[in-house]
Write a structure and sequence with these properties.
heterodimer, A: alpha+beta, 60s Ribosomal Protein L30, Chain: A, Phosphoribosyl-aminoimidazole Synthetase, Chain A, domain 2, seven-stranded mixed sheet, B: alpha/beta, Alpha-Beta Plaits, DHBP synthase, Nucleotidyltransferase, domain 5, 4 domains, eleven-stranded mixed sheet, six-stranded mixed sheet, binds fe (iii) ion, binds magnesium ion, binds zinc ion, hydrolase (chain B), zinc-finger (chain B), acylphosphatase activity (chain B)
Chain lengths: 330, 757
């Protein structure tokens, strides 16, 4: 198995192995969280594993990611998070202080998100069989009755919104991994986004088509999946893309595209054309949503592609992340 | 004594007036028989006295129509059939078409004479053409080449044109784009607040605007140009600003050869290229400076008018030197559809000179140069594409998709390697679409299904062309290493299949077999036995991947890391920005640091040390800047660039650059000593390898060899010990990759059974 920095490789794994073997209609939707109909209620169920290196980085830690990531996956199907389970895989010999710090971080994050951790499990594996600690969190949420999100709901003309600046998390972690102090003020953006989603639902529930937190593979990968699954083209306006100077600067030195960098506290939303402005306003009025932007729109053509239009009138095709980007300029 | 011959002629012989030419020739020599097109050649039966037949054939071979190119003639003696008249017969259909589409051609002297003859019915008509000239590839929608399958299909012929079209003795017999003012398309001028119809009025008004220093979008043969007075510095500056094009040189179109001669240094060879029917942009040393046209560049890119419209612009008094740059913003592909041009160029062009004839596909201007080893094509497009570039011993069809930058694709059908026009950087959406269309149209023209073809692509796992190739449901896929393809392209176009050579591929970036980023490679072998990597530039680091290709300082960090002692480069005379320190941090961290043997980045490193410390704004800019700088110095002693039997060591070279610079030596001398060092190192490595392994020639390929000074220095050091083979038909840069891919695949194990001998 190839190490997966990219969306394409893991997508291939999911579609080539998991989907056919575990086949069922809910799984086929491949949403951030599964939505189950139960006695008139729509419940959202999700699980995510966290193996980030280093465990602590500016602006966050593995423990916070473990809570926020799962809470956000629930939010992306329009679900209010209700409860979480947490499973720990610990490497024998792990410093007790490290574990305690992470559990504290989880507790704080859970409190901030307003969700209790109601159960879990712990396993200790031999030294060398795991890298410090891995955390898996599962989440249960209640889908807001007013929304029905799906790539299939997306129509040409729809607007694409971003809740805030992109790339902060991925670049921060990358630099922390290399102990590289390029931009001192860079911090991960990890946070729960349910409160922003809630504001959006209150304002434009009927026009809300699709949401996704652009984690691994970044905005480009998330939108490429949308373009393919919805059978549409996505156009982004270069000028409108919110990227902090520090992130842009770091990406420029690293030779990376901010559109390929993971976010942990932002999300993409596609909203009906007429409701784009209202959605933007709703986000901007909510604390933490001040930097939200309208960044693009859905087009009928060309199907399956994401293009970035520049001020210069040019258009660049951005693909899914396939792995660590290799040099190509000859 | 009466004899009869069956003659078949291969080459570019269809759609170029070849059959009427044969007809007239047969008439002239009093021969009977017939001529017809078949799927791959022109076939004729001629009979008459043997002396007349001999004379006929000699004339046919030596003076074919200007647009034709004869590759092969086969004569067979047959029994006379007592034919006394000569006739043109309809085409014979065989199983698969392998006939080639002719490239677009400059307007011919005969048409020009009519264009300016007040008595002629096409006097001053911007769409005049004949079988010897005019549009081909840029108007073809499908094969066979016939008016109904061109962008001229909307215009019905008037009776006079129809008569010319039907008359075998007329210069316009079966000229598919035939037109006249009565029945053909016209030009009009669109300004913000007015529309000027009528060819003459529209062109005159455009000329008036050009003379006022305005910018005009002009629809030409394969796309739109942006034109302005090149001697009006303000107009040139305005164009740069509106186009967001900071420094990349603009191409020029000059009124005539006289103006060209005053503007650039022209050797007879260069002049021949400039005036050839392909009418490419010729890069040649400037004789005077045109502010803003080609900053910090020794050369100007100049072309002559090639459409009747261009001639008319100058006829009505356009400034004698016009900027004629492809119409786009920034580095996008050129606009060629009217709506697209109007949309994308609004805000750039003050007016649009629009011709009604649609353009079927984007065909850029070609770019050529005459160097010390002869002509070099740097961009292969209008006037050349889609002609055959090589013959390969292969029977099944094969498609090679090239590299991602400067992309061009090659289709091999019945052993003929046909190369598409330059398609551009596949990251741009428009270019990627053009790439897909080029592939699809090549396949459909030759009636090929994807399932039956071999598809060849670069080894780079992340190239878009690779992904596209793998998405085709081909008979099989085959990957070729980038630099091997560079070398193989040269062997293929020379038909050197068995010859053993030393192949040197120097460029910016290519994915290597060891996963590193190659770009300074020595190969040994032949197409038949394969190319083995026998040496390379010493490995350096490439911090930040492509970022190092945009920022020469960042490339410098990767190379200087191996130098023991370096001065503080943030201080004068180097004065590197903070990026230098950051890139050093990046290198230390090991994040996104790639091992590389790129000579292109070595050039960038030296450019950075000598003062080019800013971001580059177009590909190869720092290297061009360095060449320009080196030209200002006399040939000084070369820096050491030792070859240890398998690698060229850049460390002594860079140490010398570094300390000479710190000591205050003239940067142009340093640049020159670097060029000479590189040349000397290359030559000593190549000669050693060639002698040890019995190689008969030195192949040079890759973008670095677009550097004319480097080639001159190589020639000087080599002293004709070994013949040098540079690409002639295809570009040395990545524009030639697809031919090399096709050739290496042809000789691969996998295709062994499909090869023809
Ligand atoms: Fe190359
Ligand atoms: Mg997730
Ligand atoms: Zn003509
Ligand atoms: Zn007519």
């Amino acid at each position: 198995l190839a190490h997966g920095a990219g969306g394409k490789a893991s997508r291939r794994l999911i579609e080539g192995l998991f989907l056919p073997l575990l086949r069922n209609p809910t799984l086929a939707g491949l949403a951030d969280a599964a939505v189950l109909e139960l006695e008139g209620l729509r419940l959202a169920l999700t699980a995510d594993s966290f193996v980030v290196k280093p465990i602590v980085f500016p602006g966050g830690s593995l423990g916070e990611l473990a809570i926020n990531g799962t809470v956000n996956d629930l939010a992306m199907v329009g679900a209010r998070p209700l409860a979480l389970l947490a499973t720990f895989i610990l490497e024998a010999g792990l410093d007790a202080g490290v574990l305690e710090t992470q559990v504290k971080a989880m507790a704080q994050a859970a409190e901030r998100a307003g969700v209790p951790v109601v159960g879990g499990d712990t396993k200790v594996v031999e030294h060398g069989k795991a890298d410090s600690l891995y955390v898996t969190t599962a989440g249960l949420g209640l889908v807001d009755p007013r929304v029905d999100l799906s790539p299939k709901a997306v129509r040409p003309g729809d607007q694409v919104l971003l809740s805030g600046p992109i790339g902060d998390h991925g670049v921060t972690v990358l630099l922390a991994r290399g102990e590289l102090d390029l931009e001192a003020s860079l911090r991960s953006d990890t946070r729960p986004v349910w409160f922003l989603v809630e504001a959006l639902i209150e304002k434009v529930a009927s026009g809300l088509r699709w949401m996704r937190d652009p984690t691994r593979g970044g905005v480009a990968t998330a939108l490429n999946e949308l373009a393919r699954d919805a059978g549409v083209g996505v156009v982004l306006f270069e000028e409108a893309l919110p990227v902090r100077e520090e992130v842009r600067g770091a990406c420029e030195i690293l030779g990376l595209d901010p559109l390929h960098i993971a976010c942990e506290g932002q999300f993409l939303a596609v909203v009906a054309k007429e409701q784009g402005e209202a959605a933007l306003e709703a986000l901007r009025r909510t604390p933490g949503g001040e930097e939200a932007c309208l960044v693009g729109e859905i087009r009928a053509e060309p199907v399956g592609t994401v293009q970035v239009l520049s001020r210069y009138g040019g258009s660049r095709v951005v693909d899914m992340l396939v792995g660590d980007p290799l040099p190509r300029i000859c | 004594m009466k004899q009869a011959w069956r003659v078949r002629v291969w080459g570019v012989v269809q759609g170029v007036g070849f059959r009427p030419f044969v007809y007239r020739l047969a008439q002239a020599y009093g021969l009977g028989g017939w001529v017809r097109n078949d799927e791959e050649a022109v076939e004729m039966h001629v009979e008459g006295p043997s002396a007349a037949l001999e004379a006929f054939l000699e004339e046919l071979s030596n003076h074919p129509p200007p647009a034709a190119r004869i590759d092969r003639v086969v004569i067979e003696e047959v029994a006379p059939e007592d034919l006394v008249v000569f006739e043109i017969r309809e085409s014979a259909k065989r199983d698969r078409p392998t006939v080639r589409i002719s490239p677009d051609l400059a307007v011919c002297p005969a048409c020009l004479k009519e264009l300016f003859d007040p008595q002629d019915r096409r006097y001053l008509y911007p769409y005049i053409n004949c079988t010897n000239c005019g549009p081909r590839y840029s108007i073809v929608l499908a094969l066979p080449y016939d008016r109904s399958r061109t962008t001229m299909k909307a215009w019905a012929l008037c009776p006079v044109c129809a008569r010319e079209y039907e008359d075998p003795l007329d210069r316009r017999f079966h000229a598919q784009p035939i037109a006249c003012p009565a029945c053909g398309p016209h030009y009009f001028l669109r300004e913000e607040d007015r529309l000027t119809p009528g060819d003459e009025a529209a062109i005159r008004r455009a000329v008036e605007l050009l003379r006022e220093g305005r910018i005009i979008a002009v629809k030409g043969l394969g796309g739109y140009h942006l034109a302005c007075d090149a001697e009006n510095a303000q107009a040139v500056q305005a164009l740069r600003e509106r186009k967001y094009r900071k420094e990349k040189p603009f191409a020029l179109m000059v009124r005539d050869l006289e103006v060209a001669r005053a503007l650039i240094e022209l050797t007879p060879e260069a002049e021949a290229l400039l005036t050839s029917s392909a009418r490419p942009i010729l890069l040649a040393p400037a004789r005077r400076e045109l502010p803003g046209v080609a900053p910090e560049n020794r050369d100007l890119g100049v072309m002559l008018p090639y459409t009747p419209l261009h001639y008319l612009l100058f006829h009505y008094g356009a400034p004698p030197v016009l900027v004629m740059t492809s119409a786009n913003r920034s580095s996008e592909p050129m606009a060629y559809r009217d709506e697209e041009a109007l949309e994308k160029l609004s805000g750039i062009a003050d007016a649009f000179l629009i011709g009604e004839r649609p353009i079927a596909r984007r065909v850029d201007d070609s770019v050529v140069r005459v160097g010390t080893f002869g002509p070099l094509i740097l961009r292969r497009a209008r006037g050349y594409a889609p002609a055959m570039v090589a013959r390969l011993p292969l029977s099944p069809p094969l498609l090679a998709v090239g590299a991602d930058l400067k992309n061009a694709v090659t289709l091999v059908v019945e052993g003929q390697a046909l190369m598409s026009q330059h398609l551009g950087d596949l990251e741009h959406y428009e270019a990627f679409i053009a790439f897909q269309e080029a592939v699809q149209s090549l396949l459909s023209v030759y009636e090929l299904e994807a399932e039956e073809i071999w598809v060849v692509h670069d080894l780079h796992p992340q190239y878009r062309s690779t992904a596209y190739a793998l998405s085709l449901s081909a008979r099989s896929h085959y990957a070729v290493q980038h630099h091997q393809a560079h070398v193989a392209a040269v062997l293929a176009e020379r038909g050197a299949f068995e010859e053993r050579v030393v192949g040197v591929a120097f460029d910016g970036t290519g994915y290597g077999e060891d996963g590193a980023i190659w770009g300074g490679e020595f190969f040994l072998g032949s197409l038949a036995e394969g190319l083995t990597r026998v040496g390379h530039l010493r490995y350096a680091a490439l911090p930040g991947g492509d970022a190092a290709a945009r920022f020469p300082i960042q490339a410098a960090v990767g190379f200087l890391d191996q130098i023991e002692e370096i001065p503080d480069l943030t201080q004068p005379p180097f004065s590197f920005s903070e990026r230098y320190l950051k890139a050093r941090e990046l290198l230390r961290s090991g994040l996104r640091v790639f091992p590389t043997t790129s000579v292109g980045r070595l050039f960038d490193t030296v450019a950075a040390l000598l003062g080019f410390a800013r971001e580059i704004t177009f590909e190869g800019q720092a290297a061009i800047w360095l060449e320009h700088l080196a030209r200002k110095a006399l040939p000084v002693k070369p820096y050491p660039f030792p070859w240890n039997g398998k690698e060229l060591d850049f460390r002594p070279l860079l140490e010398a650059v570094l300390w000479d610079r710190a000591r205050g030596r003239d940067p142009s001398e340093i640049a020159r000593a670097f060029h000479r060092g590189l040349a000397q190192g290359l030559v000593s490595a190549a000669v050693t390898l060639a002698e040890a392994h019995g190689a008969i020639a030195l192949v040079l390929s890759g973008g670095v060899f677009q550097n004319a000074l480097l080639l001159e220095e190589i020639r000087a050091f080599l002293r004709e010990v070994l013949p040098v083979w540079l690409p002639r038909e295809v570009p040395p840069n990545d524009g030639g990759i697809s031919l090399g891919q096709a050739a290496l695949a042809t000789f691969s194990e996998s295709l062994a059974l499909d090869r023809t001998s």
